[in-house]
Sequence to fold (516 residues):
Amino acid sequence: MKSIKILFFSVFIVLLFGAFSPNNIQDQTLVIIVHKDNPVESLSLSEVKLYWLRKVKKRWPTINKNIRPVDSKSKSPEQQAFYKKVLNMSATDVEAYFNQKQYESAEKPQDKFGNERDIIEFVADQEGAIGFVNSNSLSADMKSKIKIVAKIE
Amino acid sequence: MKKIYFTLLFTVQTFLIFGQETKLNFYAQPGFDLLHSPSNKDVGALFRGAQFIAYITSNISERLTAAVELHPHVNFKNGPEFEIERLFLKYYVQDYFSIRAGRMYMPLGFWNQNYNFAYVMIPVIHRPNILQPIHDDGFVNTRDIGVQFEGNDIGSLRFSYKAMISNGLGKNGGLGGNFRSFDTHFAYTTNLSIQPFDGLRFIVSGIYNFSDAGDPSQFSSAKFADEIQQIAYNGSVVYLNSDSKFELIAEYISTINSYKNLGNKSIYSGILYTGFKVSDKVIPYLFSEFTKFDMTDPLFMPITGVDLSTVNDDLAFQSNLKVSPGVRYRLNTNAVLKFEYNFYTFDKEKFVHGPSTQFAIGF
Fold:
């Protein structure tokens, strides 16, 4: 009986610390956002990769605006998760990819911002933008300005 | 000539000043070569200059972009020069159709379009022999002024095309240019490729060139002594995928220069690069190339002062082979350190070998 109590207590402690840990699963939910007027409703992760890297299409099909990938200026858990889970590329490879595109055909590289608020505001402002942020960074007001097209747990 | 340079420079600067978003990148790549010739019992050493490059791009509008690549350097004959390596405008008409106009690298194969002066992005230390600019004793017309139509990643096979019409052989690749007959004297370049898997590309391309006897040649004070029709053709297989540790660039380029009086002169060349990403930073590689060319071809010999009839047929063909195992260390995206050990065999000069290093940066 005593061992069952200890087991329950241990589970309780683990769950308690897990819930308040900065690295809990909810905190790590990454969302892919586009402008609210972009008619795209949802994207698979492979589609996100193609659009964000401007691999096949350079412009959004319906709104006819340039696709503008948005990135974090410095290393962040969100950037690491996006590069790993969506692009399957290292940070060096991502930079090299855009540098090469720019060098070969004058294509603009990704727009970079220092914090998530700036990323969200840029996506809210630019019809062609596509970016990634932590879902916790989206207030109700911000959610009304953008559209979530994919979630990565 | 100076007027043309200044006019072009002014035009680009105007674009850049009024352009929506302008980006300025610099590239530099100092290095050191050592060559040992066992037959001559001689060791040569060379510090290579930093070869400073400025590359400016600007998004003038959503669809229109401009780019200029500037290369300040010292020419031993003419003193300091400020060469415009590339200068083009690109207009995105719609998916699968864009237009470029200006001075640019011709869409011959893969290497010539993608790897030029920004060595921080180039996997090896030296540009392949076959792709040296023709005015620097190269073999093929690799860069020109003209218009290019292009479209990428069409359909499930990701078909891409590039078609360029340009001034053609001779001094027309320079910014000065010369008026030519409209019907036959341009160069036509076509590049077709498919990408059945991400990163795996199969490319075929070719160039057609024609020059009359008396047309200006690539050498500053000479004209073509004979009518020439040049056909260059290429086949490439490229595998460069960030998901994969393995890298491959294999290219074959051949050129037939048909002279009205001298007959056909041929050039053959193969380029092979293979790399393996041991980690994100360390990439050992092997680069090799061979070039076989006819030294009696007046395209790359001094036009005046050489009596071609005195060249013995047995000596006509020269072949060069280079094998370079090397390693690249990426400090980060903007700084790469390379080390190679080069082995060269020449028909006439036998065998030389030695190390090369390069520190390539972009900022």
Remarks:
- The mean pLDDT of chain B is 83.
- DSSP finds three helices and 18 strands in chain B.
- The CA atoms of residues 152 and 160 of chain B lie 4 Å apart.
